[in-house]
Amino acid sequence: MSHYPATGQWTTCRVCGRHVHARQWGTWRQCPYCQAWQRLTAKQRIDQLVDADSFKPLPVVARSQNQLAFPGYATKLAQATEKTGLTEAVVAGWATIQTWPVMLIVMDSHFMMGTLNTTVSRRIMAALKQARQRQVPVIMVTASGGARMQEGIYALVGMNLILAEMARLAAVPVPVISVLTDPTMGGVSASFAFKADVVLAEAGAKIGFAGPRVIQQTMPVDLPADFQSAATLYENGAVDAVIARPELRDQLGDILASYRFQGVSTHG
I need a surface site. Which of 78, 167, 237, 254 has the fewest CB within 10 A? Predict the structure, then answer.
């Protein structure tokens, strides 16, 4: 996996619009001018969270198909794969965080905005099933614009299928930790993103269902500047904590230690 989206030494901050040199972003990928956090790739996120060399990706299951013959969809899939080196908008695998074993599921907003489709749903379900069988905690890192419109009802069905798999997981029981990152929107936020034992939000994340423009056109209402921010969700009791990116790995380690789940062997 490549460290997309950088194509040169300089990139533009999506928040303040300033040009930032690659070295200025720093380890945690934060704009030096406005302090906004850059959206991470799946690989960057994994590298920041897990113990060194501990991540073992699951075998890839399912491949996306243009089931509805949606115009241009096959081309968009090919372009997203070329851009990211991924075959879909999620990466899952075994890892350890501060020596605690986990099933890590990371969505990637750089692949068609991290949208949920049939393949993404199947890969998440497969990861949840293996975590249940081996009784290992699950950490889900969401970054998604919602359900993928090119797959219509098939994408929407995936939300319920994932919830059903999570219900089976809860019966074991195995702890699930959800980490909401920027953006977590649409059907992902309305279904499994908040369906966890612990729900964390990364500082600066935008989290909600419909975007502010859609809401304003529908209601209409005036929305506050901090609408759908991680901080606002915490103030209203929707998430358990807001964690700055440099502290996220340690916080996850502490939560895993509190559960003390060792699980069954994650090898073989």
Answer: 237
